[in-house]
């Protein structure tokens, strides 16, 4: 992870946020190379799940939203983290993360515990203990239970090793904002905590302004905000992040939810492994237990990726039933049911939600692509999302005929290849190759003396380092075919 974050900063993927002022915890700025990658990921997702589909439409809802949205969704009450403070070193941590890290690190010792011999506090049953030791998860446990677990195992502070915690307390994650400039007349709104609510509150608008018919989806990519304490795993969890979510609505009396659910699982898997080429061995599905699943959800699975800091959620899939639409119907007093044209019955659709964290996918792709070889660092990023598609080099920078020819090739590729093309004439060719390998550029194009004679160039492949001669007139097609 340290190597990856060093590369992020050195090559312009990700910088710490507000760095010249000493930094602002849990915020990051994306540099020129990282921004291209981030955009390519979003564009590919959008193309796959909105542009190519007849049954999904896109929206961009406002980030600042009415406080009632979040009252209806349950976020103003239920959307919180349980936190503890170390009394000795004052570090503040999420109680669940403190415990889950402890459970991971001490798994073998814990599995040998004879649970029947433990003296348990009233709030913890033997089943509870067996559950969290086996699953290494404490989602869905109450504050009192988290407190009891910390005490039971005398979990030490990871920062100073003291065992001296404050009681577990809940903090709401929504960011309140005050609208209006006159003190006293300001009204309370919130930065959105998830993009999903934008789809629910615009459900009626979308139905009335388009030709969507059940089953159909509403998709959105955008920023969400959560006032969280994080563990500093780069952009894995940040207070401001990009979500790509789809709310897929269907008639529960006509459509089999399990079929739709399984189909989404398949689509998610294909997107990650086939379109993006992530290593299958580093992925796994994990189904949420009854305890950790939201009360309104009938089934939730996470597609998890094996990050340098362990398997963590990358893409969640949840069957949210009709909970959200019903809540908004009640709070807004709008009828959010629709009529099925075939049966004429009025129904509130149910919804299945694939929810992807774009920044997590960014970290997944880089972490999966990073390889150290004998004499180079290389990012084997799928060309479809590589920040730079090709780099163009004149063999020598002081030969005007080479530079002129190379400029022409460079301009031609910029005009005809879908993606960023880079120019580099510094140092020797070998160094230019290494520099491009580090940011995952799939192809380097060199204009040499033969080019001046026969109009062919050398194309060097990032992964194999093999070179081939290609005619300039075939070059754009050669790249575009591989970027499909
Ligand atoms: Zn401490």
Protein model, in words:
The chain is of the alpha+beta class and 484 residues long. The protein has 3 domains: 31-67 and 179-371, BirA Bifunctional Protein, domain 2 (2-Layer Sandwich), CATH 3.30.930.10; 80-172, Herpes Virus-1 (2-Layer Sandwich); 377-482, Anticodon-binding domain (Rossmann fold). The protein is 36% helix and 26% strand. The chain is built from 17 helices and 24 strands. The strands form 7 sheets. The protein has a 7-stranded mixed beta sheet with strand order 3-10-11-17-14-13-12. A 5-stranded mixed beta sheet has the order 21-20-22-23-24. A hairpin with a 7-residue loop joins β8 and β9. α2 packs across α13, α3 (67-73) crosses α12 and α14 packs parallel to α17 (472-482). The chain is globular. 34% of the residues are buried. Bound molecules: zinc ion (ZN). Zinc ion binds next to loops.
Question: How are the secondary structure elements laid out?
Answer:
Blueprint: H1 2-10, E1 14-16, E2 28-30, H2 32-51, E3 56-58, E4 64-66, H3 67-73, H4 75-78, E5 80-85, E6 92-94, H5 95-105, H6 107-111, H7 126-135, H8 143-152, E7 169-172, E8 175-179, E9 187-191, H9 196-201, H10 203-209, E10 216-225, E11 240-250, H11 257-275, E12 283-287, E13 299-307, E14 310-321, H12 323-332, E15 338-339, E16 346-347, E17 350-357, H13 358-369, E18 370-372, E19 377-379, E20 388-394, H14 400-416, E21 420-423, H15 429-438, E22 443-447, H16 449-454, E23 456-461, E24 467-471, H17 472-482
Parallel strand pairs: 3-10, 20-21, 20-22
Antiparallel strand pairs: 1-2, 4-9, 5-6, 5-7, 8-9, 10-11, 11-17, 12-13, 13-14, 14-17, 15-16, 18-19, 22-23, 23-24
Helix pairs in contact: 2-13, 3-12, 14-17
This protein binds zinc ion.
Zinc ion binds at residues 86, 88-89, 91, 157, 159-160, 162.
């Amino acid at each position: 992870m340290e190597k990856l974050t060093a590369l992020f900063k050195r090559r312009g993927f990700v910088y710490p946020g507000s760095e010249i002022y000493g930094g602002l915890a849990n915020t990051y700025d994306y540099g020129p190379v990282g921004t291209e990658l981030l955009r390519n990921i979003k564009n590919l997702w959008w193309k796959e799940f909105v542009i190519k589909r007849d049954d999904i439409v896109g929206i961009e809802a406002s980030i600042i939203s009415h406080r009632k949205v979040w009252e209806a969704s349950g976020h103003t009450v239920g959307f919180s983290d349980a936190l503890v403070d170390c009394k000795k070193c004052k570090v503040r941590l999420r109680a669940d993360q403190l415990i889950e890290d402890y459970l991971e690190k001490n798994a073998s010792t814990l599995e040998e515990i004879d649970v029947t011999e433990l003296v348990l506090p009233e709030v913890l049953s033997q089943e509870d203990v067996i559950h969290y030791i086996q699953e290494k998860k404490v989602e869905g446990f109450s504050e009192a239970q988290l407190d009891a677990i910390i005490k039971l195992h005398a979990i030490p502070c990871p920062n100073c090793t003291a065992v001296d915690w404050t009681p577990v307390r809940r903090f709401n994650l929504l960011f309140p904002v005050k609208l209006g400039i006159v003190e006293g007349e300001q009204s309370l709104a919130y930065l959105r905590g998830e993009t999903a609510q934008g789809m629910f509150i615009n459900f009626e608008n979308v139905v009335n302004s388009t030709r969507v018919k059940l089953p159909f989806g509403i998709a959105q990519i955008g920023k969400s905000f959560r006032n969280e304490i994080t563990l500093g795993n780069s952009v894995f969890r940040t207070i401001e992040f990009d979500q790509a979510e789809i709310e897929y609505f269907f008639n529960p009396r006509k459509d089999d939810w399990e079929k739709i659910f399984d189909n989404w699982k398949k689509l998610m898997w294909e997107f990650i492994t086939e379109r993006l080429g992530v290593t299958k061995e580093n992925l796994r599905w994990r189904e949420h237990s009854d305890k950790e699943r939201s009360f309104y959800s009938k089934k939730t699975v996470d597609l998890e990726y094996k990050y340098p800091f362990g398997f963590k959620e990358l893409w969640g899939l949840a069957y949210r039933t009709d909970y959200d639409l019903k809540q908004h119907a009640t709070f807004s007093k709008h009828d959010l049911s629709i009529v099925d044209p075939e049966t004429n019955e009025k129904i509130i659709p149910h919804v299945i939600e694939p929810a992807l964290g774009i920044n997590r996918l960014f970290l997944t792709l880089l972490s999966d692509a990073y390889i150290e070889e004998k004499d180079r660092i290389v990012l084997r990023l799928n060309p479809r999302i590589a920040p730079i598609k090709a780099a163009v080099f004149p063999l020598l920078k002081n030969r005007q005929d080479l530079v002129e020819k190379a400029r022409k090739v460079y301009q031609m590729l910029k005009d005809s290849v879908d993606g960023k093309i880079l120019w580099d004439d510094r140092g020797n060719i070998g160094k230019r190759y290494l520099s491009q390998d580090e940011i995952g550029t799939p192809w380097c194009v060199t204009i040499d003396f033969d080019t001046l004679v026969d109009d062919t160039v050398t194309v060097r492949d990032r992964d194999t380092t093999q070179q081939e001669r290609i005619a300039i007139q075939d070059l754009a097609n050669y790249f575009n075919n591989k970027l499909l």
